[in-house]
Write a structure and sequence with these properties.
- The chain is built from nine helices and eleven strands.
- The chain is α/β, with parallel strands linked by helices.
- The strands form two sheets. It has a seven-stranded mixed β-sheet, with helices on both faces. A four-stranded mixed β-sheet has the order 5-7-9-10.
- Strand 3, helix 1 and strand 4 form a beta-alpha-beta unit.
- The protein is globular, with a radius of gyration of 20 Å.
Length: 287
Amino acid sequence: MDAGSFTGFDTAIEDPGILVVTFSNPERLNASTAPMKRDLVETLTQAQMDDDVRVVLFTGAGSAFWAGDDLSGIEPDTTNAVVPPIFGGHHDPTGTYNGLRVISQTVNTSVRNLDKLTIAAVNGFAIQTGFSLALACDFRIAARSARLGSATLRFGLLPDEGGQYLLVQHIGVAKTMDFLMRQRIVDAETAHDLGLVHEVVDDDALMDTSLDLARELANGPQVAMRMLKRSVYLAAEQTWAHALEDIAARTAVTDHHPDAREGGRAFREKRPAEFNAGLVGRGAPAD
């Protein structure tokens, strides 16, 4: 993938194969629009199909990660849009249903469906849709000044992009009920205590820490890691028997992959393993 500027976000590539997506409308706290979401879904689709991309890292410009949907009614600039604008919206119940299922919910579905690992570097306000996107990522690192929450009930609205499901997965039913019904927006340390983020760091260390994690993940055995990611998410909803069947089928692939042979050789030779040789030569940077 190439670096570029799109509706509401910019992309950059960091070695080895880290796609950095930066939400880029700080004047509106990076609040989202339908064109932004459509461009984001297309970008994630390209990332999934591109061997150059190993890890996707999300962050925001200015004082927000992604502060929910833009309710201003101002039309965004779609000059650099990946996909053209479409008509329709939340003008009636059918429009709302279609808008949610086809656009808003598709963003988090696209993040969850990525085989590549994802990181949310939460640098400020992560509210409503932005909060849910962070929860959809595999790893979350928060700056100490970050504020995270849904609080849709403050507007009489629902966490309609799947936020209720993601919260239940992370903190359980009882804590989710308290979090949503009491309209909580919490600081980074509280989010960490609840289990919503993996790590809290000083603001000026956020990107360095997040990129260090991204490089660690990008240098790991990509095929096995992608298989394991999918199996972990499935295991959260499967029976024991189904989970065993799933991991056995995936192991039948990974045990015979070149990375497994390299891992064994590296162990015997007491040296760091050099994985992902199969990706080199197809555009991916060498480790």
